[in-house]
Amino acid sequence: MITAELTVIPIGTGETSISKYVAVAVSVLDQIGIEYKLSGMGTSIETDDLDKLFAAVKAVHEAVFKEGAMRVATHIKIDDRRDVEKTMAEKVASVREKIK
Residue 14, exposed/middle/buried by CB under 10 A (0-12, 13-18, 19+)? Predict the structure, then answer.
């Protein structure tokens, strides 16, 4: 299972708020049908297909431009584990079990 953390930062918007750009990005993920979890600092994505992940990242990046950003900085961190299938929830649960 592939887990990725995606952060898209619109630059040159003339505003400090970026929530409308995040909303557009999340709408794209909904349309694509990829699993994600939104947080206050980024979005975690889960898929078993690397091509689908990269297609989703590209679609989100382009959507932020279409929303009016003049520049977009996209950061992606990928964890591609192939020895076992672990979902985002299972990874979090594993850590929580170890907290004493």
Answer: exposed
